[in-house]
Amino acid sequence: xTQDDRLIDLEMKLAHQEHLLDELNQTVYRQEKKIEELxxxxxxxxxxxKELSDTSQDxxxxxxxxPHY
Length: 69
Description:
Layout: H1 3-63
Family: Belongs to the SlyX family.
Coiled coil: 7-41
Protein name: Protein SlyX homolog
């Protein structure tokens, strides 16, 4: 293998690795955005669940018979 062949081979490998790195960076970026979206959704659902739970407890307390019955 000549020096030129080795250099061409290394340049091809480097180009392939750079392309792969770009693809991986894009994948990580998309995953980070999705995680942020899911995190916001989780917080909204947790807040809604707490609101519904509090409302349910208030209704249950209003429907209880007083202790003297």
